[in-house]
Amino acid sequence: MKENTIEKLNKENCTGCGACYNKCPVSAIDMVFDSEGFIYPRVNQELCVNCKQCQKVCPELNVEKAEVMKHREGICYAMMAENEIRKVSSSGGMFTLMANTILEAQGIVCGAAYTEDYMEVKHIVIDKKEELQKLRGSKYVQSSTENVYKKIKKALHEDKKVLFVGCPCQVVGLYFYLGMQYENLYTADLVCHAANSVTAYQSFIKEIADEKPIKEVNFRDKTKYGWSTPTTVYFQDGSVHNSAWNESKWYTGFLGGIINRKCCNECRYANRNRVGDITLGDFWQIHRWDKTCNDWKGTSLVLVNTEKGKEIFEKVRPQMKLCKEAPLDFAVKYNGQLVRPNKAHPGRKFFFNHLEKDGYHKSLWYGQKWRYDVGLVGWWFAANYGSVLTYFALGKILDDMNLLAIMLRIPKLDGGQWEPVTENNIKFMEKHFPVSKERSIDEMQECNRFCDSFMVGSDQLWVQSYVGLVGYTFFLDFVDENKKKLAYATSLGYAEYKGTDEEKAIASAYLQQFDDISVRESSGEEICHKSFGVEAVRRLDPVFLCDIKHYDELASQAKVETEGEYMLCYILDPTPEKKEAVKYLEEKLGLKAKVVLDMKTFNSSKEKWGQKNVVDNVGIEDFVKLIKDCKYLFSDSHHGICFGLIYHKNFICIANKSRGYTRFESLFNLLKIRNHMVDNAREIIGNDILLENIDYKSVDTILEEEKKSSLEWLTTVLNKEKKENESKNTLLVKTLNKLHRLERENKKLKEI
Questions:
Q1: What would the pLDDT profile of 679-725 be if each residue is shown by its tens digit?
Q2: pTM for this structure?
Q3: Both 443 and 526 in a single domain?
Q4: 3-state class of 210 per DSSP?
């Protein structure tokens, strides 16, 4: 069972330290690479005996115990070994001096080494100085610890001295595996920038090699650039690829947070309190503190964290060419990874989505430029809980598909500003997704530079009245003809398109440029066919497609109190009749009401409703939690009811005709729950049939089928090639866009 194994651990928290693999008594765990090229444990359930040993040795499942292993701030030193040692070392040669000391005592040294073909990095154990060169040098790709923890334990039981060098998470993994202190064990943790993808590394090397056999890979070769960070690849034919640190595309991905393991972005070990006896790194910018500490051949940053660390440091100190105690604050200033993790680049997901198909360098070029798979267009910022959550859902759906989406800001046609309340919703979205900068109508074409495709999201978008507000933005008039255009569950709001024949013809021209169209209501299918001459299919509102875990996560971040049983009343348009209905339901159900009002019209709505039971300052997270925790739901909001369905609430809905009746009718007919909807609040009083429990077994069966077909449709259209549009249609759209621009320019001139 998963609950009894290491697979209980959230994948995004796993460091790949390998403690579980080494500990398993029946070898039921393998360490395997995922699609991004990072190593994770996989349990063979047929072999597993449910002993839970893998869980006991996992630092991420025992965080408090891992925290205890951190030491107090160490003493900071700048050091140099002799020139001959530094010549073959990444930095100042501290590792070599320590390793030599252990090897001379007939001990073993464990560190990271390339495989023979230079395609992977693995931890190995050596017991001879002649093998030390394998462990020298920075690899800048995640190392697999293989079964070295077992070998180390065996050596310790044989009273051999052991030096283990690795990333902090690997050091902690070793400690957890051993389960006790060993006097002969010395550990050195590295100032780690992050673990990098093996798949990305292999693609990078293969593109550089161009099928030439590799002799050596060295990311810190000092022969040409000195103490710097060049990328050098030596080939068996004698040729050399050499690039300085600021030219190396590997460093671009590495330092930029594009190719790093996810957990590294939240690394708990990137702080002054280290886990190793010794901490090793480069003492960057040391000349700013003391010029004598830098001859450009390499200077090590050394933190002595424990008594054992002090012991081995003092043993090798006489062999140092230079050793000076230095301020830790100075070291931190120029080596930030001592105290904070490297953050992920916004283009990370895009990079990995394209790596297999396009290779390292091309994917990096796209990722660097913050390219996105999908630009989302719609009312995602609107002063409305339902609108915001619709696009939150759509963004998370794409995210779960491993597609990177960006929310595109929508400008007003007249260049004016949206309501101040929208800024809070923009901030909410920025916490979860990339959001574009503000652009004018004429500047929207710039979005083509960083989006591969565009999607008009759900919600009411193709309403004729909106053309006067945002132009034809919701018809993707700004999108180039070579970009894919999609519509997912878009709503027309009403049973028919109410524009003029001319407006209908313009809308038709734009929609015929779309690759695929789906609409939210059944009536939308007919409108698209009869009014616009395009085919559309009905698909489920995206709030139903989104994994409920994402809503639960929002609810967990809420600030509102929801103790005790209550009836939630989400009212968009207050009326005396609705107030009477709420009073009736309070008495009938024996529940006190909590009232949430429309975000946009909150002040005026509160005045109409009165002060009683109104919840103030309801954020998006609060809105979700209030529905999740309520005993009963009463609403005139389409999306209020949608979330009631998601959280299996009994409810009464008032179909809000002023806000698009067809969406209520379409949803309730689909789910066969028409008896829980009324057209007027007066119908509620005395109508006990409305209070009957909803048959969620039946509802869920329908929703699951609809969800399945909707996700299949969405996956298909996203993966399809861009369709070829007819040249006549394309020319018409170009002409329309030109005319619209001229109209706007003419209007501006008249205003002057």
A1: 999 999 999 889 999 999 999 999 999 999 999 999 999 998 887 76
A2: 0.76
A3: yes
A4: coil
